[in-house]
Specification:
6-stranded mixed β-sheet; 202 residues; 2 helices
Length: 202
């Protein structure tokens, strides 16, 4: 064999050795999971031999600690002394005056000027020491007091007898009313309706 043939054979053998080494290296890298340069490795889903596959541990709900209740912060209006706290205002019931109920004489009654008339009324309250009932008569554009009573004087009611000629003095159409007032200050504490009556000559 000449020298040229020997060089050619040596080159082929050298190339074959390099190729075998490259293939061996590629197989080794593939087995270790290392991707070759220039390749796009595909994720391995199979487990590697010799490594134990772990199983997720099941948690017993009964063994888990109970959840703690959430404690919310009180708003200002829920805390006494807070910015928006307001003391509840007690409700005060309205005081309704006890009505004075007229008993007699009936409305539109007719009297002679010489008559003495008994005016009667009821009031279920209790008179204070400073209180009194005053009988007023209105007519002819004027109002005048005919008398007063400061205690029960007819069973459970009140009565005031009035001689018309001495108090009213003349015939005409009038109205009578009973007023509860304070003796000291004259303040009106209650009043009845105004009931009309007629006075004629005689």
């Amino acid at each position: 064999m000449d020298e040229r043939s020997s060089r050619k054979a040596w080159g082929i053998g050298h190339y074959a050795i390099v190729l075998l080494i490259s293939i061996f290296a590629a197989l080794s890298l593939s087995a270790c999971g290392t991707p070759l340069p220039g390749t796009n490795p595909t994720p391995q889903t199979a487990s590697i031999a010799g490594l134990a596959t772990s199983t997720p541990q099941q948690t017993d709900p009964a063994a888990m600690p109970a959840a703690r209740p959430t404690i919310a912060l009180a708003t200002p209006w829920e805390v006494e002394g807070g910015a928006a706290y307001q003391t509840p205002t007690p409700e005060i019931a309205a005081v309704t005056p006890v009505p004075i109920v007229l008993q007699g004489p009936p409305a539109e009654s007719v009297f002679r000027l010489s008559d003495e008339v008994s005016f009667l009324w009821l009031w279920p309250g209790e008179l204070e020491e400073d209180n009194r009932f005053v009988l007023y008569v209105t007519g002819g554009g004027q109002t005048q007091a005919l008398g007063s009573v400061n205690e029960i004087n007819l069973g459970a009611g009140y009565q005031l007898q009035v001689p018309l000629i001495e108090t009213v003095g003349e015939p005409g159409t009038y109205g009578w009313q009973v007023v509860l007032e304070s003796v000291e200050s004259g303040a009106i504490l209650g009043a009845s309706e105004i009931r009309p009556f007629l006075i004629v000559e005689g």
